[in-house]
């Protein structure tokens, strides 16, 4: 999850928002990191408690099948973000090897990704992704600390202004996109129950499969593990997100720079070179490659599993037919690599591609929130329901997300 989150949202969207509006939207970045994990936790609780997948649960929310198809549309749109990540990695490689064009590097990366994911090498990539998240987060956090020693780019007065719940007028589109991507985005909320299954959190714990008196305690034990998992990843991506935003608001906004289609990586590299020194340019290149490419793997691997499950729910194969599920998963892997490539060739603007995917995720967030509320009240076994304060927090998060998205729609299309 952390590998999927610390990617285009932080490196591209969050720094772009900071560059565009300065410190004013700091509160929204923090709010985005803290408000959505409660929904993530309750989706994971549903999977552990019922031994049903996330899409299987949302299929129960009336009207039937609507959320499933909305998820599919959102995921296709979010492939714009994946296309942007291919472009970002290729831009870095082109800076290192100028004789090879960005477009050629995109094709090379597509081939490598197909080979690794279809060849069953994702587990190895997952371990590398864990290392890259820790490395890049530590490095970016260090850069943000050094930023505080540069009064021309940073002041605590500006930080306090950014915590006053003001929405930026000029950067509202970017702010909403950041809200959809940063922290646990709508895409990750759908992914997470599948990782719970894949990692074994729901194994032998489904309440509907009761065989002995230990089943409830086993399920509660896995829910505790899941919540520790969620808190750990939230700690990591919140630090990374705030650091990226401060660097964008301080360095890029202070220099009057905005990441754009052709020079995105060159502009973003200033967040390291102006804090750590010119020597850190190569560290930024390395970190950008690992961060963006790791997110490509995490996202494609997860979405291919969810799409395969969607095919099962729509009646294409039986739940216990694992060979057929694997065939669908591989077919969707190819599709999820081809679509970002097509989007890249059409748009070739990484920043705008990331923002478009972020808005699609933002629009989906209220639907996910209220769908989770419905499952929480109608399908969670009584023995595994959380304390009352968790239920209140779930309602609170869903209401706030809905209000924020309603405000965006009003400002953008009505007022």
Task: List low-confidence stretches.
Answer: none
The name of the CATH topology is Amino acid/polyamine transporter I
Distance between the termini: 37 Å
- Please bin the fraction of helical residues: over 70%
What would CATH call the class? Mainly Alpha
CATH superfamily: Amino acid/polyamine transporter I
Secondary-structure-based class equals mainly alpha
The number of helices is: 18
Report the radius of gyration as a whole number of Å: 21 Å
Number of domains: 1
Any overview of this molecule?
- The chain has 415 residues and is an all-alpha fold.
- It has one domain: Amino acid/polyamine transporter I.
- It contains 18 helices and no strands.
- The protein has helices at residues 2-5, 8-21, 26-35, 37-50, 54-58, 66-96, 102-118, 122-147, 156-161, 172-181, 186-198, 215-255, 264-268, 270-273, 281-313, 322-347, 350-378, 388-414.
- α4 (37-50) runs antiparallel to α12 (215-255), α11 packs across α17 (350-378) and α17 packs across α18.
């Amino acid at each position: 999850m952390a590998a999927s989150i610390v990617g285009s949202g932080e490196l591209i969207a969050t720094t772009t928002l900071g560059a565009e509006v300065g410190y004013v939207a700091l509160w929204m970045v923090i709010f985005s990191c803290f408000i959505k994990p409660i929904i993530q936790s309750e989706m994971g609780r549903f999977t552990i408690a019922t031994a049903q997948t996330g899409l299987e649960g949302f299929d129960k929310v009336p009207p039937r099948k609507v959320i499933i198809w909305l998820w599919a549309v959102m995921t296709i749109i979010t492939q714009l973000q994946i296309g942007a990540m291919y472009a970002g990695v290729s831009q870095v490689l082109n800076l290192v090897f100028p004789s090879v064009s960005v477009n050629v590097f995109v094709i090379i990366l597509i081939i490598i990704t197909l080979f690794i994911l279809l060849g069953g090498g994702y587990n190895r990539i997952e371990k590398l992704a864990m290392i890259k998240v820790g490395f890049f987060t530590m490095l970016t956090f260090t850069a943000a600390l050094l930023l505080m020693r540069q009064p021309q780019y940073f002041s605590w007065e500006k930080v306090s202004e950014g915590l006053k719940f003001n929405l930026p007028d000029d950067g509202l589109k970017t702010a909403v996109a950041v809200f959809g991507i940063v922290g646990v985005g709508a895409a990750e909320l759908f992914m997470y129950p599948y990782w719970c299954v894949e990692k074994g959190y729901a194994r032998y714990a489904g309440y509907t499969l009761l065989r002995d008196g230990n089943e409830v305690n086993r399920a509660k034990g896995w829910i505790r593990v899941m919540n520790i998992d969620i808190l750990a990843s939230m700690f990591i991506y919140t630090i990374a997100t705030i650091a990226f935003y401060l660097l964008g608001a301080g360095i890029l906004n202070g220099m009057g720079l905005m990441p754009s289609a052709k020079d995105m990586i060159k502009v973003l590299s200033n967040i390291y070179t102006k804090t750590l020194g010119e020597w850190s340019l190569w560290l930024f290149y390395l970190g950008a490659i690992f961060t963006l490419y790791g997110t490509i793997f995490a996202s494609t691997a997860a979405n291919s599993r969810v799409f395969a499950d969607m095919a099962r729910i729509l009646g294409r194969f039986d739940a216990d037919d694992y060979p057929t599920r694997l065939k669908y998963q591989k077919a969707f892997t190819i599709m999820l690599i081809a679509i970002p490539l097509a989007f890249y060739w059409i748009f070739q603007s990484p920043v705008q591609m990331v923002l478009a995917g972020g808005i699609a995720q933002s629009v989906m967030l209220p639907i996910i929130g209220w769908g989770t509320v419905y499952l929480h009240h109608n399908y969670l076994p009584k023995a595994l329901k959380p304390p009352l304060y968790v239920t209140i927090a779930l309602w609170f998060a869903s209401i706030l997300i809905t209000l924020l998205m309603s405000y965006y729609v009003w400002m953008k299309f009505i007022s």
